[in-house]
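Example record

Each entry pairs one chain with its bound ligand, shikimate-3-phosphate.
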Amino acid sequence: MRQRIDKLAVIGLGLIGGSLTLALRNDDFVGESVGYTLDYNNAKLGVELGVVDRAVETIEEAVCDADVILLAVPVKAFEEVLAQIKPHMKTCAVLTDAGSAKGVFVDAVRKVFGDVPPNIVPGHPIAGSEKSGVTAAKADLYVNHKVILTPLAHTDTEALSLVRTMWRRCGANVLEMSVQHHDDVLAATSHLPHLLAFSLVDTLAGDQDNEDIFRYAAGGFRDFTRIAASDPVMWHDIFVANKHATLRVLDRFTEGLASLRDAVESQDSQAMLGVFTRARGAREHFTKVLSGQSYVKTMNTDNVVFKAQPGGEVCGSIRVAGDKSISHRSIMLGALAEGVTEVEGFLEGEDSLATLQAFRDMGVVIEGPTQGRVRIHGVGLNGLQPPPGPIYLGNSGTGMRLFSGLLAGQAFDTELIGDDSLSKRPMERVAAPLRSMGAVIDSSEGGRPPLKIKGGQPLKGIHYDMPMASAQVKSCLLLAGMYAEGETRVTEPAPTRDHTERMLNGFGYKVLRDGATASLQGNGQMIGGKIDVPSDISSAAFFMVAASITPRADLTLEHVGLNPTRIGVINILREMGADISITNEKKVGGEPVGDIRVRHASLKGIHIPEDQVPLAIDEFPVLFIAAVCAEGETVLSGAEELRVKESDRIQVMADGLAQLGVRTDVKPDGIVIRQSSMSGGTVYSHGDHRIAMAFSVAALRAQGDIIINDCANVATSFPNFVELASRVGMKVSVGGGA
Ligand code: S3P
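Structure tokens for the complex follow.
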């Protein structure tokens, strides 16, 4: 494989070509760079400015002996320049280009060469500036910018790799896609916006009052039309080159604009709000994607590292993030109810935001979230519309399992997908009982996501005895039961969280409870209302353990949900000797809440009662930290469900504790933990938010720093965890280095 370019020839030494040679000037990767421009003086200027090594007067001189040739000329000149280059190129030379449309380049190559030779690699650096010419060349123009290469099926891998390396050496992120896809994407993201900006400015400038319009035009007009100052000739050429893809996206846009016009004319608030809230949501979503914090698949690959230091305190009064389970359900039931549902305290974490986005994609108008406030314009049980593509649920098992129930009864097909962790989690537990209700669901190997759900299937009620204590399975079947004929009954082997039942009843959809069985009749109706989401006891749990194990700690956690099916962590910690008191108890929207005060106490090890396991199912990672600090031995059994959470929480915690010098006995359904000191060390959360936060708490009693890798997913359930931890006196920071 070639590792070096002895001679790099740039045809068209302007901003784009000049920035490439400048960026590679002091890099051993390139022996000599040679620049050619139509006006020789410009190439000479490039040499004087130190942009390129040598200027040449003819194309022949530039390309003879060159190993790599970059064509950085206007798209309309491709054919002519290629014809001039062809007779003088070495047979093994690699030719690439920098044109904004790729189909036109490939067509020009075909015309000149008869076919596209394997050593030609079409490319497009997405970087530029309003300035042009060799004087505008910048060594860092490509740093952190994207370069798209569009190889063909028979493009030589060595040639591709050489071009890829060349751009990477300039600091660019190199992507690959097909020629057609490139032209479609660019038509939508670049060419159409330019067309609109040119058109808007031209239309308004032709107006009689144009002076006023331009004089008083404030930020909106200026922002929207900034790109109308771009080079007219270049853009003319681009629209000629990418005509078909531009017309396709322009037609779609024109249709959208026409229906928005109708909505404005007929004062159709629902339609206008629908467009605006969806657009705003999508725009925020892009901003997050670009800044690397989004809940979408591509972004969570970053290794966010927490550094947790010993010596912190745990004092004060805080309100932790909203309850994740209730937040998911507030959106789901609000969307399927009649009328408007107003939610307060909504968790703006990635999981619940993914649920919100999914309903927007199915045509539900949702305003917010703004500081935990969301307004959902319910569409009724049968008002959802087909989503434009697969529904992405991020890291959320709750999302995928509850959605599978409510989508099984829709008239349209859907596909549910998730991130790497979710893609490994078992879905057969919901797919199997749903199938026995009449649903048609395909899953991947081993019953894993993606789930493909066929629409238009008549469902019938069943009685299902759950083999495991799972609120997600129960909720999934109750949601499907709303679309089923007759009664759906679900019996649980042990009590699990009952937020779905409470919220359904609150919205007027009757759910009966008979011992361990919850049941409802199909084809009912929900009326939206107000939902006050309490703080998540699962998030509060980190601070409850933090306060319990830290000398002199005294912490109050405000407005925490105290649903009896969720308070296992309080029961377990109290049995271990924790000092926990509850005040201000009240009921909000059918859910009990209260303030929890926790003070330091010396804990003792216990055998955790198995009936508490489902009631504390998400709190075990941090309870294991409490166990390490508790005198004697703590034994957990009957908790095999922990192995199929966001990670295998038994093994991942045992591995992390081992890194801190704590030995544990791992069992198939639990763990035995003895009191131990903890050293500092490096641990891995395996993308599991609760593991990351549990080890942050461990540092309070460790003898050295704990470096926790893979913490990006803390944003799924508790986006401001680090901020609140610091506020109470813990020493946790982001980006400590692995
Ligand atoms: C949840 C139920 C639990 C829990 C999860 C949230 C819910 O899962 O672990 O974090 O909102 O219904 P299982 O039903 O799998 O136990």
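The first helix runs from residue 15 to 23.
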